[in-house]
Design brief:
It contains eight helices and twelve strands. It has about 220 residues and is an alpha/beta fold. The chain folds into two domains: about 120 residues, Rossmann fold (3-Layer(aba) Sandwich), CATH 3.40.50.2300; about 90 residues, Arc Repressor Mutant, subunit A, CATH 1.10.10.10. Helix 2 runs parallel beside helix 3 and helix 6 crosses helix 8.
């Protein structure tokens, strides 16, 4: 069954360009032109991936994303003409998994989509339960617990925690985390790792993920 991808942009030229490239890969494509349409389409079609513009009529992309996240967890790639760091951080903070800045290469976007779908497919067949002193993670059910409390993690947050638990005690560079979580075809910035690690840390009450200066992060049993 082909993957379902929702493209949300008020510019017909951009929608048509992205759709043409993705349809060549055999994906099932849906389109929306504004924020309310994005929310309705996400609810109706249950896409695997949403490519979402920030600047939309009716409701901006960030608010649409916030509403979508209330009922589903598709992988979301923000598409924006804005280049300021704060816009990227805000987008990631409200639930986006990645971002692409206009103007962009359609081939690069397709490569990112393929990498995401490979990760999703691999996640469906992997079978492993990881346990540390206070954390337990089941890669089949895609559930994780802090002691006896179920953690509410997004796809990216779950995958980051899984990689860190598999390498418990080892320092992982941002580049290694990008490759393991976003895939080898990822062309974005390492800053995206810091933002999502920050989200995971918050959900772990600031415990267990230690920053390794000049390198990246590692999972520890207790913070020093």
């Amino acid at each position: 069954m082909p993957a379902k991808i929702l493209i949300v942009d008020d510019e017909a030229g951009i929608r048509n360009l992205i759709s043409a490239y993705l349809r060549k890969e055999g994906y099932e494509i849906y389109e929306a032109v504004d924020g309310p349409g994005a929310v309705k389409s996400a609810h109706a079609f249950k896409p695997d991936i949403i490519i979402l513009d920030i600047m939309l009529p009716g409701m901006d992309g960030l608010e649409a994303l916030n509403q979508i996240r209330r009922e589903s967890e598709p992988y979301v790639i923000l598409l924006t003409a804005k280049t300021e760091e704060t816009d990227k951080i805000v987008g990631l903070s409200v639930g986006a998994d990645d971002y692409v800045t206009k103007p962009f290469s359609p081939r690069e976007l397709v490569a990112r989509v393929k990498a995401v779908l490979r990760r999703l497919s691999a996640g469906n067949v992997a079978s492993q339960v990881l346990i540390t002193h206070h954390l337990r993670l089941d890669s089949v059910s895609r559930m994780a617990w802090l002691d006896d409390t179920l953690l509410e993690l997004t796809l990216i947050e779950f995958n980051l925690l899984e990689v860190l638990m598999k390498h418990h005690g080892q320092a992982m560079t941002r580049e290694q985390l990008l490759e393991n979580v976003w895939g080898q075809d990822y062309f974005g910035e390492t800053r995206v790792v810091d933002v999502h690690i920050g989200h995971v840390r918050q959900k772990l009450n600031g415990r267990f993920i230690s920053a390794v200066r000049g390198i990246g992060y590692r999972l520890v049993d207790r913070m020093e």
